[in-house]
From TrEMBL:
This is biotin--[biotin carboxyl-carrier protein] ligase. Pfam families: BPL_C, BPL_LplA_LipB. It comes from the Bacteria. One of its GO terms (cellular component) is cytoplasm. It comes from Streptomyces coelicoflavus.
Length: 304
């Protein structure tokens, strides 16, 4: 099923458009002038080019999860690398560990991309979420003018007041034998009274100079194309591509005491001292042992 393009007919509200409580009529997608809709036509014009990574950009008004949709589309047929699916609103978005991600319509960037890194050994595909984090942070810094940091392995942090808050997340899922779908969610214009939890943040709350989602999305996707190209040309080698060094430089987890909540209800406390060649977080424990963590939830405790 082809996703409906929600962006090019502003007067044509889809059947499942949000209803106005007063008259039960579909609200115009332009009802919140601070959050104009994205245009897939404009995005394609700016991003799709001969020889480039991005082949197609689709914008849909509402879906359950862009990741789930793109994984399903990839399974149905020979979907080319470089397809981008963007949703103005998601009803069943997921983060790591199946956590729910909720946000008002058009308050952020919610998109997924399909990658097929055939030149890279599968053993190095674990770097893709970290690579995406670097690309997102780089793109947002350039376009939004806001400082961002990365929490291992896949959270985007901003500073609101003097507090470090999560403003985005990344989720990677396999798509068949040779594909990976990377999903990204970024809170852009979310206001304080809209925060799903008190510790959440957004680019607007962090004082971003630009919260226009069109140039933000273009900047992030161009940055992702650049970093993915470097990594792929290096055969996925994180050191040769510069990815490992750049990720470490922007990782707010390094140098902190953290608690790693591991599978099997285990936990490990130590200082995060490095990200190794496999993308794992290395903890120096009180026992004097350095232990790599490849999966788990990381809780920042304090600076070491």
């Amino acid at each position: 099923m082809t996703p409906r393009d929600s962006s090019d007919s502003p007067n044509d509200a889809p059947k499942d458009a949000p209803k106005d409580a007063a008259n039960d009529a579909p609200r115009s997608r332009w009802s919140d002038l601070d959050r104009p809709p994205l245009s897939s036509t404009a995005l394609r014009r700016g991003l799709v080019r001969e020889g480039g990574l991005w082949r197609r950009v689709d914008v849909v008004q509402r879906t359950g999860s862009t990741n789930s949709d793109l994984v399903a589309r990839a399974a149905e047929g020979d979907l080319a690398e470089g397809v981008v699916l963007v949703a103005e609103e998601q009803s069943a978005a997921r983060g790591r560990l199946d956590r729910q991600w909720t946000a008002p319509a058009r308050s952020g960037l919610f998109f997924s991309v399909l990658l097929r890194p055939a030149e890279v050994p599968v053993t190095r595909w674990g770097w893709l979420p970290l690579l995406t984090g670097v690309a997102v942070a780089t793109g947002l810094s350039r376009v939004a003018g806001v400082d961002t940091a990365l929490k291992w392995p896949n959270d985007l942090l901003v500073t609101v007041g003097d507090e470090e808050r999560k403003a985005g997340g990344i989720l990677a899922e396999r798509a068949g034998n040779d594909g990976v779908v990377i999903g990204v969610g970024i809170n852009v214009s979310l206001r304080a009274d809209e925060l799903p939890v008190p510790r959440a943040g957004s680019l607007a709350l962090a004082g971003a100079a630009n919260t226009d989602r069109d140039p933000l999305l273009r900047g992030v996707l161009r940055s992702l194309e650049d970093w993915y190209g470097r990594w792929r040309e290096a055969g996925g080698d994180p050191a040769a591509s510069g990815l490992q060094e750049t990720y470490a430089a922007g990782c707010a987890t390094l140098g902190r005491m953290v608690r790693a909540e591991l599978p099997g209800d285990r936990s490990l406390v130590g200082e995060a001292v490095a990200v190794d060649g496999d993308g794992r977080l290395v903890l120096a424990t009180e026992a004097g042992v350095q232990e790599p963590v490849g999966a788990g939830d990381i809780v920042h405790l304090r600076l070491a």
